Amino acid sequence: MSTAAHPVLDLPFDTPPDPEEFIRAAMEWHFHPDTGSPYWLERATSLDFDPRTDVKSHDDLQLFPNVVNEMRKVPVHALIPKGYGPRPDIVGVYESGGTTGAPKRVVCPRDWMERLVDWSNANLDEHDFPRGVDWLGLTPSGPHIVGEIFRRSAATHGRHGFQVDLDPRWVKKLIADGKADQADAYAEHVIDQAEFILRTQEIGVLTITPALLERLVRREDLVALVNEKVRAIRWGGTQLDPDTHHLYRTEIFPETVLYGHYGSTMIMGIAGQRPGSGDSCVFDTFSPYVTFSVVDPVTRRPVPYGARGQVVMNHVSKALFLPNNLERDLATRVEPVRGRVGDAAADIAPVGRFENEAVIEGVY
Amino acid sequence: MVSSQETDRTDGLIQLDVLGPSGSYRSRSRATVPDVSGRPAAELSLAPTVYVDRAMAALRRARPLSADERVAAIVRAGRLFATETINGLTVGEYEHAVSRVGGVPIQVVRAATRTALERSAQLHHGLQHARPWGAVGDWRDPLTRAGRAVWTRRGEVFAVHAAGNHPGTHTLWPEALALGYRVAVRPSRREPFTPHRLVTALRMAGFGEDQVVLLPTDHAAAEALLRGADLAYGSDEVIRRYADDPAVLPLIPGRSKILLTADTDWRDHLDTVVESIAHHGGTGCVNATAVLVEGDPAPVAEAIAGRLSVLPSLPPEDDKAILPVQSAVSARALERYVRDRAAGARAHLGGDGFVEELGDGSAVLRPVVHQLERADDPRAGAELPFPCVWVAPWSREDGVTPLRDTLILGAYTDDDRLIDAFLDEPTIANVYLGDHPTYWTATGIPHDGYLAHFLMRTKGVIRG
């Protein structure tokens, strides 16, 4: 019995594996009785194909059903590949935003989190984020992976990380119940707390959601403070329309780096804004580990480059296998960076309705 | 940046930019404004929320011009509006665009241009009618040395969530500018040309870019106008949501009515009654929605139907057009709605349908006359954007009750007690007695009360 992973699953973040060799090794890992997770080994019995022999390329991921809704109920220990051994090194259990019902969960081994943050830090360098500065995070905290990514980014790329608690589910609930005034008061409370930190600390990087940034910008003294201290803003969580992005870049924060993230707890990660992609933000994934396909929502086939479609997300790593997750967003399909599998996505916007529950955008 | 004097058409479409606190702004996100045939006529730039928030803040920072400068600029703006080429459009091209997009008969648009000119010249004069007679307009008035009321603003920034049914709706809000407010106008997508032209003219005439702005927005950003203003008024979905807020003045349906009592022979007034229904193409809140008749309503309904039935079906830009036009799709939807609403009522005109398609995707909304059996039938208040009238019987026993909730009441009666009752009824805004059409107005006549009563308050001042 061998629980050793194929070395192609353990490459440093900046050594891209051969995509097909990578997929075959990942299938072997996740579906071999010795190394796969209890969840997938059980789930594979109801598949009408054998992942270890039939899945040879990224395109073959489409063979899998979308199992993401099962992540609302699966005990998380069943998601850890047995190959990690009896005492797996886990950094945390993370939950989705709960926008569309009960939250979904994933469990994150240390090797993946470290590889992800290494990749993300390299992106920050490419976008001229200053090293060694203090960070302020106005992002979901609690069980959301974005909070963990914030803390690790701040600690490794920056110096100290300052956070404000933020519960996006409560805001969504308030909005759904028609309590817009309470949602408003909560968001103002978040900005008030950020102000204390911005005023007293040496904040060089601000991580924030578009809705909160819009709110911060209503306070002219805070705009001045951000322009005085903050050298780079990393935004994410919901989308920033091109007009607003342009205003930030040219009028409101003209000297500040703007860099967007598009992610999901269900990919255990983020896609980063392509440098120089202008105001129609193009997002590249950490391929081949995290990949997007922009598809026709009815046929599930990719739309042509430049056309709008719905985003399907895949996560394939030693840590997790979660393919074919139809996300709640529409995007323009864009060609990936050369040599990478999957699509890049631009001009992301939420689908109006999803799985019979109206999507509500709030602070998050 | 687009100068107001250069023709600006991309792909043949009129570009209507946001007119913000530091000039014109063309967004990437633009709404296509179709004409009545569905063909794109213009592109309207949409300001994102962040832009609106900052524009509202800029309005608040700006100081108003002096009262004299404001009045002078409004008079000048009226002349520019009615005569100059603005945003590349001559007066004729502007009127054509309003007519083709809004479906308003061109003569109605031309009349509105003349009215805009007259009203801007008289605006300050008209406003003085709203000032309590004991109040002076400025604390420097020597009367305050003995103690006096001063007429003052209730706020600094005013948001207008404009209607798009008729260009004339834009003759009212410049009063706020005259009173020293900084004003943000959110145009209706149904007809953004008039507010764009008027705001441009006001800026050409001397108002600063941070004193009057045009902020077309999508639904979400519309809230930012309301949030950034001290007072707001208008008729869009945001105003409806906040209609109970005391800082919001909603425009509500006019439900204007005519009462023909037995005191007069209605045949003598048929011209005025018909004009009250169909003037402005029946698109105004001042057009009569119901005619109440003491006695048998059938001959009145028949006579009105006879007059209205001969009105021609023409494209709105035709000089002889009288009736409004919409896209055939929305006209058919309106037809289904009216047919359902009218079920059981006796139709004198238009009962089998009132949509006449013009073949280019547009359709004329032809007049409709229904007879109701009771004065208190709620359908008598069903106001629609074309000549659509409900004729019902009325008796002295019915009294004023069926005449409630009326913007303009045109009453043909000699009964002083009845007239007293109309004047005493708080939900009737204007009472026109005798042979005056419901759309009549003149300098100093309030529309639905004075807008200035919403915008202003009095302050006791004594000095010296």
TrEMBL record, chain A:
InterPro entries: ANL_N_sf. This is Phenazine antibiotic biosynthesis protein.
From TrEMBL, chain B:
Gene3D superfamilies: Aldehyde Dehydrogenase, Chain A, domain 1, Aldehyde Dehydrogenase, Chain A, domain 2. Residues 1-35 are annotated as: Disordered. This is Aldehyde dehydrogenase family protein. Residues 1-11 have a biased composition (Basic and acidic residues). It comes from the Bacteria. Keywords: Oxidoreductase. Residues 174-449 form the Aldehyde dehydrogenase domain. Pfam families: Aldedh. It comes from Streptomyces sioyaensis. One of its GO terms (molecular function) is oxidoreductase activity, acting on the aldehyde or oxo group of donors, NAD or NADP as acceptor.
